Task: structure prediction
Amino acid sequence: MGATILIGSQWGDEGKGKIIDVLTNQADWVVRYQGGNNAGHTVEIGAEQYILHLIPSGILHPGKRCVIGHGMVVDPIALCEEMSELEERGIDMDGRLLISDRAHLVMPYHRLLDAGHEKLLADGEKIGTTQRGIGPTYADKISRTGLRYCDLLADDIADLMRTQIERSNARLAAIGSDPLDVETTLASLMEAVEHLKPFIGDAIVPLNDALERDEKILFEGAQGTMLDIDFGSYPFVTSSSCSAGGAATGTGVPPHRIAGVLGVLKAYTTRVGEGPMPTELKDEMGEMLRSEGGEYGATTGRPRRCGWFDAVIARYSARISGIDRWALTKLDVLDKLDKIKICVAYELDGRRIDTVPARSKDLERCVPVYEEVEGWQTSISDVSRHDDLPAAAKDYIARIEELTGVETGILSLGPRRDSTIVLDDCLFG
Result:
């Protein structure tokens, strides 16, 4: 039995949390492999809403094993807070949550460095970071100066942390930020350390052993392809590998054990933060999409920029990650529209192109080439079968499939678990 990767195929916020929740019933393990608490997955179960930032969404299903992979960077204080909130709501994590001992620690000074560096950037250069310390932590990882969760199990962890805090105060001073109080910061960290120790261990062996037992693993990606450090709209990206390739490097599961890739795709396009977005609508239509779709960030609460569906970036994502099926979300947000536009290509300097240029400054200058299709102007949120969708809605889905070369496996017509149409088995292998 292989593993399935679920990834965001736009600029994040595609509704991955709900799709993971729907698929978890078929999985034995759910694994996060990149990013940190700069991402948020919202899941609605009945009248309850859960917003998860670090813990895989599978934790909401009793009996499922969840792993925080070593490709992530994990704030220990934020993780403890998230665990405590879930425990207060009756979610048991003992024996079900494993934190990879190779994952890197987001320290309090990383958050201050993140905010300080962003503040120093001129207008037009700001990344729009969540200021959760993700970028500086990945920078320390690459420069081989970071702390990992295996260090929390060492007898000298307090000394290691104290040294890191003292050294980082000099870095903070260099960018005009106030220093941290060493002992106060250390005390709060050590409290978190004691809480997390029982959950830390080698994640590589149990995941590979699970595959040998023919158990199903579902990899839960965060953010989206256009925020990938290599493939996204650089430098307006996150600091990790959001595409399918990140699952292997972020967990230790070899590529040949990956059975398939499911791409989550919103029926229109949104983006949070700075950077180019060719189909952005800065008018009443954009505001309507934001209002109808509840387009506000799960992590920051920031309003999302909204625009028409961009087939160029969807096709680009499919190529990069080898997407086998789409999970198409928020189709119901378009219910009231009589006409819907789809971006099928870009024009750049008078030339038509059908892929994403490498330079963000070029992507910023891209003019979308639109085609217009009919809307369905009726509510579809209670539809339970694909055959019962309005003809125009089925035509819209078919056009997306035609433009991207990928068929749809799941349709999401609202935030509830039961507002989902599963067209195909999307846990491969």
About this structure: Residues 104-199 form a domain with the Adenylosuccinate Synthetase, subunit A; domain 2 fold (CATH 1.10.300.10). The chain has two domains: 3-96+202-422, 104-199. The CA atoms of residues 81 and 192 lie 9 Å apart. The radius of gyration is 21 Å.
